[in-house]
C-alpha cells in the first residue's frame, strides 16, 4: 500500500505542480472485511474525505451514513467495519493500515459496553466509569465509543466528563468539562462536535458545563485543578439529582495521562488525584486501558476496591501516539472552532475594541512564576499589557469585574475571548468575542493558550 | 384486415376441428381462398395444428390442408410442400391403422390430382416422392397383414408367441400356467403342420393367437415400463442434464392391435418406435441390465457418486425445465439484498433478547476478555435490529410505531435544518443566510437545571425560547429564579414596544431591504395598509444607518453609557 500515490507524504500536496496534486487526490477504493479496522492518520495541513459506499462502518462507535462524504483533517482515527465495507476516499493520508479482526480490541469494547448496559438496565443508577491509562492508551477513543454505543441503545448517552485540560471536548483547550451526549457525536470534528450556537447546526449541538483550568500542566497548580474538579463534580451531582434519564445512563470520566496527574515523571505515579476523582465523581467502575495487568494491579492496591470494580481493557494495538506537535495543532484547531466554527458550521465571531483600563484580568498561581511555596488555588491580578495578553485566550467569568478574586474563583465561566491585539501606547485592546455584542463587564481569567490567526 | 388477426381467427376455428366436419373445413378453405396475402400465416397455423393436436384429430387438419390446396392452389401448395413429407411421416407414425389408411387414400388423391391441363402435380415432386418412399416401406408389411393368413405365417406367429412366453417363463419359473401355455402352443404348431385347414379356420386361429399375443404383450410392456423407469432414474441420477423429455417412453396406443405383429423386423424397428421398445422385448431389458451393471461397477469404483437430494445439479435440472425468459426478473444489487437479509437475520437474532437475562455480563475481567455468544447476539441491537438508517447522519430507528414517528420527526428536523443552513430566499430575492455564532456557556445553576431535550428535540418549534446564558447575573450566589426578576420583565415589555418601531422605506433606497449591521440579517419591506406606504418593521434609523430596533436596543442597553458610544462607533464603522 505504501506505493499508493496518496502516501508519498503530505508535503507533496503543497507542491505547486498541479499535475502532482491531481494525481494525489484521485479516489481510492478500500474494501474491508467485517470486523477489521482501517486506521488512518490525516495531517494538519491536508484533508481527506471518505464515503462509505456499502456496508456498516463506524468511527469510534458512531455509524457513518452511506454515500455521504465525511471530511477529516489533523486527526487519526480507526474506521471499524461492522460488516463488509466498501469505501472510497480522496485526499492525502500520512499513513494508513488495515488491521484484522484479531488485532482490534472491538470484541472487548463490545463486552464492556454490554456489561455496562446491563447495569443501566438493572437499576436507576447507571455505571460511573473512570477511564485510566497512560498517554495514548486509547482512553478518549474508548470514551467516545462507549458514549456512542450507549446512545445507540437508549437514545441518551452518558455524561462525558473530560478532566484532561490538554484534550478539547466541546471546548477550547485548558478546560475541564461535563457534557451529556444526547445525540450523535460529530466524527468530522476533532472536538467531538459543537457546543450550542445561535443558529442551525447540522447535528444537534451539545450543552457542556465548562470549567477553565487554563494551565497546560496539572502539576503547575494542582490545588487550582482540584478546585475545578470539585466545582465540576458538585454541579454534575446537582444535574444528575434531577435528571433521572442521565442518572440512569451514568457518566464516563476521561482522565489525563497518568503521569500528568503526578509530577510529570514516568512510572512513578501519584494516585492521590485518581483517588480524589473516584470519590468526587462517585466512581463505581474503573476501566484501565493498558496492554498488561501491572497498572490494574497497582490500582487494586490504591483504590477502595470494596466500592468499585476494576477491569482492564486490552489496548488496541493501533493506538497512535499523538506527538506534541499534533496536540498543539489540535488545540489551536479547537480555539479556531470555538470562534469560527468548522467547514460544516461556520460561525461569525465579533471583534470589539476595549480600553485597557476597562478590563480586569486574573490568572491562577503557577509553579512556573517563581514563588517558592506550592501554588494555591488563588488568583492573582495580571497587568494588562502586550507581553502578558497578546494573542492570549482568556476565560470570561460570570463574576463581575469588580468582584474579589475569591468570588471569581467560585464563579462559572461564560466563555472565552481572544485578545487579538494590545496597543500598549494607546492603552487599547482588540478582543475577539464568540457572541456579537460588547465584551461583558466581567472578570477575565488568563489561560496559557495562545492563538495567532 | 391484417394477417395477424386473420391467422388468429383461422387458428381458433382450426381448434374446433375435433371431428370430421365438412362445414368447418369449407369455412377454413374459403378463408384461405380469400386471404391469399396471409398464406404464410395460415399455412403456419395449419402446420402447427397438425403438429400439436391429439393424434386422432390430425387427419381432419390434413383434410383442411388438402381442401385448401385443391381449391385455392398456389401459393398454398408451394408453402405446404416444404414441410409436407415431414408432417405426413410424423402423423402416420402416431395414428392408428384406420387413420393410416385414410392418410394413404388422401395421398393417392394427391398423386392423381392434375391441376388443370398443365399436368402439374398438386405438391412438389420431392415431397410426394418422399412420402411415397416412406409409404412403400411402411405399407410393405401392412399389405402382408391384410393378406389371408397362411399356414407358414401362422407357424411364424406361433414361434414368436412361444419365444415370448418362454422368456416370461424364464423370468417367472414358478408360474405353471406359462409352461402350460408353451405346451399348448407346441401342440397347435404340430396341429397346423399336420392338417390343412380351411382359410376361415385359419383366420379363427389367427385371431385367437392375436388375442393371446396381445395379452402377453401387455404383461411384458408393464414389466418393461418398470424397467424403463428404473433405467430413467439411473440416467437422471448419473446425468440429469440429459434427461430430456424425448427420452420418456412414448405413450403407447390404447389399442394393442396397432402393434404390427407380423411385419418384417426391419420395418417394425425402423418405423415403429413402439415396436422397437417391445419387439424383441429381450433386447431393451438386456440393455437396461447392462446399463445398470455398468452403473453399479462405476459406483463401486467410486467414479460415480449418488447425487444428494439437495444439490445444485438437481436444483438446476428442476429449474431448467421451468425457465421462462419472460418470467426472468433482474435482481436488485447484491448489497441491497445483503442489507435486507442482514436486517431480517438481525431481527430474529435479537428478537426478544433481554439484556438482564443475558448470561456472563457481570462487570468483571473475565466478561471483558472472553468471547461471549450473548454479546454476539446483543450486538445486533446496535445495528440492523433497528433497520431504518437515516441517510443523512446514519442514526438508526426501529420498526415500532413510536420509533417510526421519531424517524419522521428526525427527517423533518434534518429538512428544516438543511433549509436554514442553506439559507432561504426572501420575497425580494435576497437570501437570508444562516449567520450564527457560538453561545455563551451556561452558568452552573443554569446548567444544573438544563434539560438536553431542549437541544435534541426534533419537534420543537423555532419560536420556543432557548436557554441562554444570563449575562447580567450580578452574582453567582443569585438563585436561578431570582435573576429573572423585574428587570427581565421590563426588558420584555421594552422589546414588544421596540418591535413596533418602523421606518418608511426612504426613496433613496435602492432595494427594498436593509441589512442590520448588528445581526447582519436582511430585512425586507412590507406594505402597510393603514398608511399606504412600504415600511421596514422593527427598524430604527441612527445617523443614516438602519438597525433592527431590537438589536440596537440590546447592544445599547447591555453597556454602560460610555461603552454605548464606543459600541455605536464600532457599529458605524462596521456599517460603513
From TrEMBL, chain A:
<keyword id="KW-0067">ATP-binding</keyword>
<keyword id="KW-0539">Nucleus</keyword>
<dbReference type="GO" id="GO:0031124">
    <property type="term" value="P:mRNA 3'-end processing"/>
</dbReference>
<dbReference type="InterPro" id="IPR038239">
    <property type="entry name" value="Clp1_N_sf"/>
</dbReference>
<dbReference type="GO" id="GO:0006388">
    <property type="term" value="P:tRNA splicing, via endonucleolytic cleavage and ligation"/>
</dbReference>
<feature type="domain" description="Clp1 C-terminal">
    <location>
        <begin position="347"/>
        <end position="453"/>
    </location>
</feature>
<comment type="function">
    <text>Required for endonucleolytic cleavage during polyadenylation-dependent pre-mRNA 3'-end formation.</text>
</comment>
<dbReference type="Pfam" id="PF06807">
    <property type="entry name" value="Clp1"/>
</dbReference>
<comment type="subunit">
    <text>Component of a pre-mRNA cleavage factor complex. Interacts directly with PCF11.</text>
</comment>
<dbReference type="InterPro" id="IPR045116">
    <property type="entry name" value="Clp1/Grc3"/>
</dbReference>
<dbReference type="InterPro" id="IPR027417">
    <property type="entry name" value="P-loop_NTPase"/>
</dbReference>
<dbReference type="InterPro" id="IPR028606">
    <property type="entry name" value="Clp1"/>
</dbReference>
<dbReference type="GO" id="GO:0003723">
    <property type="term" value="F:RNA binding"/>
</dbReference>
<feature type="domain" description="Clp1 N-terminal">
    <location>
        <begin position="32"/>
        <end position="121"/>
    </location>
</feature>
<dbReference type="InterPro" id="IPR032324">
    <property type="entry name" value="Clp1_N"/>
</dbReference>
<keyword id="KW-0507">mRNA processing</keyword>
<feature type="binding site">
    <location>
        <begin position="136"/>
        <end position="141"/>
    </location>
    <ligand>
        <name>ATP</name>
    </ligand>
</feature>
<dbReference type="GO" id="GO:0005849">
    <property type="term" value="C:mRNA cleavage factor complex"/>
</dbReference>
<dbReference type="GO" id="GO:0005524">
    <property type="term" value="F:ATP binding"/>
</dbReference>
<comment type="similarity">
    <text>Belongs to the Clp1 family. Clp1 subfamily.</text>
</comment>
<feature type="binding site">
    <location>
        <position position="37"/>
    </location>
    <ligand>
        <name>ATP</name>
    </ligand>
</feature>
<dbReference type="GO" id="GO:0051731">
    <property type="term" value="F:polynucleotide 5'-hydroxyl-kinase activity"/>
</dbReference>
UniProtKB/TrEMBL annotation, chain B:
<dbReference type="InterPro" id="IPR054127">
    <property type="entry name" value="Pcf11_C"/>
</dbReference>
<feature type="compositionally biased region" description="Polar residues">
    <location>
        <begin position="237"/>
        <end position="247"/>
    </location>
</feature>
<feature type="domain" description="CID">
    <location>
        <begin position="2"/>
        <end position="139"/>
    </location>
</feature>
<dbReference type="InterPro" id="IPR045154">
    <property type="entry name" value="PCF11-like"/>
</dbReference>
<dbReference type="Pfam" id="PF21936">
    <property type="entry name" value="Pcf11_C"/>
</dbReference>
<dbReference type="InterPro" id="IPR047415">
    <property type="entry name" value="Pcf11_CID"/>
</dbReference>
<dbReference type="InterPro" id="IPR054128">
    <property type="entry name" value="Pfc11_Rna14/15-ID"/>
</dbReference>
<feature type="region of interest" description="Disordered">
    <location>
        <begin position="230"/>
        <end position="260"/>
    </location>
</feature>
<protein>
    <submittedName>
        <fullName>LALA0S04e05798g1_1</fullName>
    </submittedName>
</protein>
<dbReference type="GO" id="GO:0005829">
    <property type="term" value="C:cytosol"/>
</dbReference>
<dbReference type="GO" id="GO:0000993">
    <property type="term" value="F:RNA polymerase II complex binding"/>
</dbReference>
<dbReference type="Pfam" id="PF21940">
    <property type="entry name" value="Pfc11_Rna14-15-ID"/>
</dbReference>
<dbReference type="GO" id="GO:0005849">
    <property type="term" value="C:mRNA cleavage factor complex"/>
</dbReference>
<dbReference type="GO" id="GO:0031124">
    <property type="term" value="P:mRNA 3'-end processing"/>
</dbReference>
<dbReference type="GO" id="GO:0003729">
    <property type="term" value="F:mRNA binding"/>
</dbReference>
<dbReference type="InterPro" id="IPR021605">
    <property type="entry name" value="Pcf11_Clp1-ID"/>
</dbReference>
<dbReference type="Pfam" id="PF04818">
    <property type="entry name" value="CID"/>
</dbReference>
<dbReference type="InterPro" id="IPR006569">
    <property type="entry name" value="CID_dom"/>
</dbReference>
<dbReference type="GO" id="GO:0030847">
    <property type="term" value="P:termination of RNA polymerase II transcription, exosome-dependent"/>
</dbReference>
<dbReference type="Pfam" id="PF11526">
    <property type="entry name" value="Pfc11_Clp1_ID"/>
</dbReference>
<dbReference type="InterPro" id="IPR008942">
    <property type="entry name" value="ENTH_VHS"/>
</dbReference>
<dbReference type="GO" id="GO:0030846">
    <property type="term" value="P:termination of RNA polymerase II transcription, poly(A)-coupled"/>
</dbReference>
